[in-house]
Amino acid sequence: MGALLISVIYQDGTASEVSNDVLDVLIATGRIKRFKRADGWVEVTADRTQLRNYQQQKDYAGPERRAPWPKKQRSD
Questions:
Q1: β-strands 32-37, 15-18 pairing
Q2: Between these two residues, 4 and 16, which has the higher pLDDT value?
Q3: Cβ 33 vs Cβ 76: under 8 Å
Q4: pTM across the whole model
Q5: Dihedral sign for Cα atoms in the order 60, 28, 21, 69
Q6: What is the pLDDT of residues 19-74, one digit of tens each?
Q7: Domain ranges of the chain
Q8: What value, to the nearest 5°, has the Cα angle with vertex 23 and ends 53 and 11?
Q9: Cα Rg of the chain, angstroms
């Protein structure tokens, strides 16, 4: 069974479907305007969408192996 894909609309208006992990990166870098949940579309900037913050979880005591979050893309 394949991964569940989430519909997204990029800043340039194009549409795509991405995995949940890719969605987090797209939100963090400011590359999407909205994404679709079961109950409707979420406007990323208007709704101040929160990312899952893995780096604040205290359950894991091993070494940190995850890459840092990418820098937010500047819109000049």
A1: unpaired
A2: 16
A3: no
A4: 0.59
A5: negative
A6: 888 888 888 888 999 999 888 998 887 555 555 555 555 665 666 666 666 666 66
A7: 6-54
A8: 120
A9: 14
